[in-house]
Design a protein that fits this description.
Layout lengths: L4 H20 L20 H10 L12 H10 L32 H25 L8 E3 L4 E2 L1 H17 L8 E5 L4 H12 L3 E4 L6 H11 L3 E4 L4 H13 L3 E4 L10 E2 L1 H6 L18 E6 L9 E5 H8 L1 H4 L7 E4 L6 H14 L2 E4 L8 H7 L4 E5 L2 H6 L14 E5 L3 H11 L3 E6 L8 E2 L9 E2 L2 H6 L2 E4 L1 E2 L4 E2 L15 E7 L13 H6 L1 E3 L7 E11 L4 E7 L4 E3 L2 E3 L1 H8 L5 E10 L6 E9 L7 H11 L8 E4 L14 H6 L10 E5 L4 E4 L2 H8 L19
Parallel strand pairs: 1-11, 3-4, 3-5, 4-8, 5-6, 6-7, 10-11, 10-12, 12-13, 13-14, 27-28
Antiparallel strand pairs: 1-2, 8-9, 14-15, 16-23, 17-20, 18-19, 20-22, 21-22, 22-23, 24-25, 26-27, 28-29, 29-30
Membrane topology: Multi-pass membrane protein
Keywords: Cell membrane, Fatty acid metabolism, Ligase, Lipid metabolism, Lipid transport, Membrane, Nucleotide-binding, Signal, Transmembrane, Transmembrane helix, Transport
GO molecular function, one term: long-chain fatty acid transmembrane transporter activity
Length: 704
């Protein structure tokens, strides 16, 4: 069955962390502050000095205290990462003497008196500690790329102050949704925690979105407040009249406001009380409560607001722990915090284990490794094409002189994976697969290059998934005579669907029931079942390793064959003059399906070589997969999470009147890619044979 004890251990570790988050959030227990400490251990004086020098994010010990002693001190100091209780008791302490837990025997009166005496002494010590707290500096630091440092104490105090201002000044109530329109900065973190303390959901707006798309995002999440940065003043003022008309209140998280009628809240936050908020704000929070709205990338239309519940938030934040993230690690986060990878896995993972977060405003390939060395980074995050950008930087003698031991992310292509390891050293790469709105995913715990995970009986029982046959042309699953979907065999590509169960619920998109229903496949294997439609094509080999193949919307059909854009891109990336490539399908008049087209970016100092590209594609690709058109661009369009955009490229097609970039056509007569001109384009549109076109297209004789 492919069962591995290692996978069982990882799963149990996930459940352990999940239970801790459940306790910390007060689900099934009395309301408590938001976070709990990760697994920590005493550190030496030398370690503490290093941590201070590098700006370690949450905590750092110099006194060799045990976990229990540290937890007690944190409770006494009213710091939010408690063990899930509000009465200051430790796990090993008994509860009320008159109410024993579980099936334990009822304590004797003498035992009760002794326990009450201990509780009284502990209460007195807590009062003393509380008095000392005002003069005691908080331990532990967080650092971002501009060397602004925040301790856990800073973040706790700021979030409590902000929560108090949001509640008393803005009138925020539990259950309301607040949109944050902020760049990558520490303000994002304490604002998130402040809203969580109030029991409010946070809508994470993409700071690149403008105009109608921004209004659409706010309406989808039904946000009644917007907390913004003055850096985004122009974007905000563009839609401000519409927001005011709709009753959406807007505030800046800054010292002053550059916009008339928009108040700056930072002065009020700085002077507010930093005492912890009462627990009643989160009294109604459950595992299924909406915690965050994260928007899809918008590569195929307007962004959709994916619902992230408290349960999913906790499980995603535990991903770092599963990958081996430790309290002593320094995580370098360059990903936008409006995305789940940056906010939940990056920052959330740090909060879960007590690690250091090095937060950078934006990704910079040229500064990446210098930052890693400067801040003693041990863990990096990646998505999409980020790793390729690192590999495309000029080689240096110190490429392998760094302290990075672990990389966590998704979307790493096999050819880039190999090049990255060869150039930057033996870094443990944990590739995972999962959709923001999805109900389950995979994780590659073996290090198998190119794989996104490995299936086993335990995973299948917890999160039942299937790979089913899919008709690319009709854009729907293939069903048998009974109307049920058909499983693919090992080695075949199929659509990934994940069963919707109590363990793997699907909450869909906020404010769009039609799109939510569109992501659900019904009657897949039996009448009445329901599966989440991932929209992704995956393949599982005979060893149960799972590989991402393509998006169903990106794969196209030509000459009766399915063409996976990712496979063609991986092949073309090996050409010596190509730096980046984006493959997509375009419609051709008179032909069924779509033919391949590639947008490429040349390496610096290199020129396009049509004959060499023709020879290479003829040797390495099937005839139906070789791109018929090539477009050269100075930069390829990507999303904020480094995913390639294909929509605009598909719409522009291969029309030389629209495309101003250099455009080439694959010519069989000259065995080269030749410049595209108006005559060739007109011949294609009129379905006339010219320059060997009938060798490619179905103008006269059908598919060849």
């Amino acid at each position: 069955m492919g069962f591995k004890w290692q996978s069982l251990g990882r799963f149990l570790l996930l459940l352990s962390g999940f239970r801790g988050w459940m306790e910390a959030l007060g689900i099934g227990r009395p309301p408590v502050p938001l976070l709990r400490p990760g697994k920590t251990r005493p550190v030496t004086q030398n370690q503490e000095q290093v941590d201070r020098r590098t700006g370690r994010l949450l905590g750092g010990r110099t006194d060799g205290r045990t976990d229990g002693q540290l937890a007690q001190t944190r409770l006494q100091e009213q710091v939010p990462w408690t063990d899930g209780r509000t009465d200051g008791r430790m796990d090993e302490e008994p509860g009320d003497a008159s109410r024993p837990r579980g099936d334990a025997p009822h304590p004797s009166p003498g035992q009760g008196r002794r326990r009450q005496g201990k509780k009284k002494k502990k209460k007195e010590r807590r009062k003393e500690k509380k008095k000392e707290r005002k003069t005691k500096p908080p331990q532990g630091q967080t650092r971002r790329g501009k060397d602004k440092r925040h301790t856990y104490g800073d973040v706790e105090q700021l979030s409590s102050r902000a929560a108090r201002v949001f509640s008393q000044r803005l009138g925020l109530q539990p259950g309301q949704t607040v949109a944050v329109f902020l760049p990558n900065e520490p303000t994002y973190v304490w604002t998130w925690l402040a809203l969580a303390k109030l029991g409010c959901a946070m809508a994470c707006l993409n700071y690149n979105v403008r105009g109608q798309a921004l209004l659409h995002a706010l309406a989808a999440a039904r946000a009644t407040f917007v907390l913004a940065s003055t850096e985004l003043q122009d974007a905000l003022e563009e839609v401000l009249p519409d927001l005011q008309r709709d009753g959406v209140k807007v505030f800046y998280l800054s010292s002053t406001s550059p916009t008339p009628g928009v108040e700056a809240l930072l002065p009020a936050i700085e002077t507010a009380s930093d005492e912890p908020l009462p627990g009643h704000y989160r009294a109604g929070i459950t595992a299924s409560s909406k915690a965050i709205y994260i928007y899809t990338s918008g590569t195929t239309g307007l962004p959709k607001a994916a619902v992230i519940t408290e349960q999913k938030l906790m499980m995603v934040a535990n991903l770092g722990r599963i990958c081996g993230l430790r309290a002593t690690d320094h995580i370098y986060t360059t990903l936008p915090l409006y995305h789940s990878a940056g906010l939940l896995i990056g920052v959330g993972g740090c909060l879960e284990v007590g690690a250091t977060c090095v937060l950078r405003a934006k990704f910079s390939a040229s500064q990446f490794w210098d930052d890693c060395r400067r801040y003693n980074v041990t863990v990096i995050q990646y998505v999409g094409e980020l790793m390729r950008y690192l590999c495309n930087t000029p080689k240096r003698d110190n490429d392998q002189k760094h302290g990075v031991r672990l990389a966590v992310g998704n979307g790493l292509r096999a050819e880039v994976w190999k090049e990255f390891l060869q150039r930057f050293g033996p870094i443990s790469i944990w590739e995972f697969y999962g959709a923001t709105e999805g109900n389950a995913g995979f994780i590659n715990y073996t290090g198998k290059i190119g794989a996104v995970g490995r299936a086993n009986a335990f995973l299948k029982s917890f999160a039942p998934f299937e790979l089913i046959k899919y008709n690319v042309e009709q854009d729907e699953p293939i069903r048998d005579e009974r109307g049920f979907c058909i499983r693919v065999r090992p080695g075949e590509t199929g659509l990934l669907v994940i069963k919707i169960t109590k363990n793997t619920p699907f909450y869909g998109y906020a404010g769009d029931s039609k799109k939510t229903e569109k992501k659900i496949l019904r009657d897949v294997l039996v009448k009445g079942d329901a599966f989440f439609n991932s929209g992704d094509l995956l393949m599982m080999d005979h060893e149960k390793f799972v590989y991402f193949q393509d998006r169903v919307g990106d794969t196209f059909r030509w000459k009766g064959e399915n063409v996976a854009t990712t496979e063609v891109e991986a092949t073309l990336a090996m050409v010596n003059f190509i730096r980046e490539v984006n493959v997509y399908g375009v419609s051709v008049p008179g032909c069924e399906g779509k033919c391949g087209m590639a947008a490429i970016r040349l390496k610096p100092g290199m020129s396009f070589e049509g004959e060499n590209l023709y020879a290479f594609t003829r040797e390495t690709l099937p005839s139906y997969a070789a791109p018929r058109f090539v477009r050269i661009q100075e930069a390829l369009e990507i999303t904020g999470t480094f995913k390639q955009c294909k929509g605009n490229l598909v719409r522009e097609g291969f029309d030389p009147d629209i495309i101003k970039d250099p455009l080439f056509f694959r010519d069989e007569k000259t065995k080269s890619y030749v410049p595209m001109n108006a005559d060739i384009y007109a011949a294609i549109q009129e379905a006339k044979p010219i320059w060997g076109l009938i060798r490619h297209f179905c103008f006269l004789w059908g598919s060849l």
